[in-house]
Amino acid sequence: MVMTVIEACSPEKAARGFSLIELMVTLAVAGVMLMVAVPSFGNLMLSSQLTSLSNELVSALNSARVEAVKRNAPVEVCSDNTCAVTTTDMSNGHPLRIKAGLDDMVDPISVRAVRHLTYSGQGLAYANGQNAPFSGLVADLFSDRLNTQGHRCIYVEVGAVVSTCTDNQNCGYFNGRPNASCH
Description:
Blueprint: H1 11-14, H2 20-71, E1 75-78, E2 96-99, E3 109-112, E4 117-119, E5 125-127, E6 136-143, E7 151-157, E8 161-167, E9 173-174, E10 177-178
Parallel strand pairs: 1-2
Antiparallel strand pairs: 1-4, 3-6, 4-5, 6-7, 7-8, 9-10
Membrane topology: Single-pass membrane protein
Family: Belongs to the GSP H family.
Organism: Limnobacter litoralis
């Protein structure tokens, strides 16, 4: 018969802590994890900024539509400094203008294909010089620093329905429909 003797740890042994080697290994593992996580966190922040800007533009489009219906008067949505007037005296015949807020963009975020739209009192969007309600790409917000999902596409369909999508490629409008990945 073999007897096993279990020796109780003395209080001095139990409270010793970590050895220097254990501490160095832990720090090395934490350093490797940080080197992997920091670039991903940067991409996450950039993607979040893109989404936030596209949400601002969608909000401006929806606000313009609601305001046009409420006033039964035209309301313009502009995305740059051509929209210096943000309120108006309706007696002078100028439409209300709502600024889309895209001037808050910071490098490396860019925008292409921005459309200047005017909502009628019926709530339909028209591009300058068009008589039919607008259907198409309003803006393509993008960053070349994102390898995937680097484009936020904002569309208006049939003059009223605002939709967005995230895409790997340039936003487009083909055969009356958004990119294949956006519908």
